[in-house]
Amino acid sequence: MVHIGNSWDDVLSGEFDKEYYKKLRGALAAEYKKYTVYPDMYDIFNALKYTAYEDVRAVILGQDPYHGPGQAHGLCFSVRRGVPAPPSLQNIFKELQDDLGIAPPSHGELTSWARRGVLLLNTVLTVRQGQPNSHRPLGWEIFTDRVIELLDAAPQPIVFLLWGANAKAKRALLTNPDHLVLTAAHPSPLSAYNGFFGCRHFSKTNEFLVSRGAAPIDWRIDN
Question: What pLDDT is stored for residue 167 in this prediction?
Fold first, then answer.
């Protein structure tokens, strides 16, 4: 049984008992036994563990975890301290500096964002080493779509940041007019110059939250 350790346990009550999740759990057990899979099985639900349901103020949607050794730890785009920041994350830091004047940190771990209400959710939560999208067929998106739907129903104002085609595909799940949805190109070097750079999503997020009487997000990253 999955135990998140905060309000998500109640919000997701019964989800882990559904037939699709039982099949997913069985498939994951076989994958972790046979292959090198990221992140560590104890880190799979870190996005939910770090950011309780009622604390979510912004959501950044990723695709699936980094598939290189030591990178993925359950938060989209984030890598553990001591691991070089991948190109997409470097571009996120560049836009953050251009938008809010926040200098790039000395590492790529985004747990400080997660603790301040930024849910860093991949739509697929596991991956085989060196094989991007390898776990997409397992059923993760049934689960993460449900998480997105539950967030859409949340009473507090939330900003959804959808970067790239895969994230933008989730736009149809977001129907609550009390939230804000921002879209842009993916921060990958292949597309960042086609609409990610200059999107100003960090300042736009804070402008919206303040307009709704909520506190802005501190986008600085603790060194």
Answer: 93
Instruction: Go through 36-67 and write b for each residue having 16 or more CB atoms within 10 A of its CB, e for each that does not.
Output: ebbbeeebbbbbbbbbbbebbbbbbbbbbbbb
Catalytic residue annotation: 64
Question: DSSP class of residue 203?
Answer: H
Burial letters for 93-131: b for 16+ Cβ neighbours within 10 Å, e otherwise?
bebbeebeeeeebebbbbbbbbebbbbbbbbbbbbbeee
Rounded to whole angstroms, how far apart are CA atoms 129 and 107?
22
Mean pLDDT along residues 109-130: 97
Please give the mean pLDDT across all residues of the chain: 96
Helix (H, G, I), strand (E, B) or coil at 181: strand
> What is the pLDDT at residue 27?
97
β strands within 53-117, DSSP E: 58-62
Asked if pLDDT for residue 164 goes beyond 80, the answer is: yes
Task: Name beta bridge partners: 197.
Answer: none
Classify each residue of 147-183 as buried b or exposed e, where b means 16 or more C-beta atoms within 10 Å of its C-beta.
bbeebbebebbbbbbbbbebbbebeeebebeebbbbb
Which secondary-structure segment (H or E) carries 162?
strand 159-163
Instruction: Taking the CA atoms of 170, 171, 172 and 178 in sequence, report the sign of the dihedral they define.
Output: positive
Q: By three-state DSSP, how is residue 99 classified?
A: helix
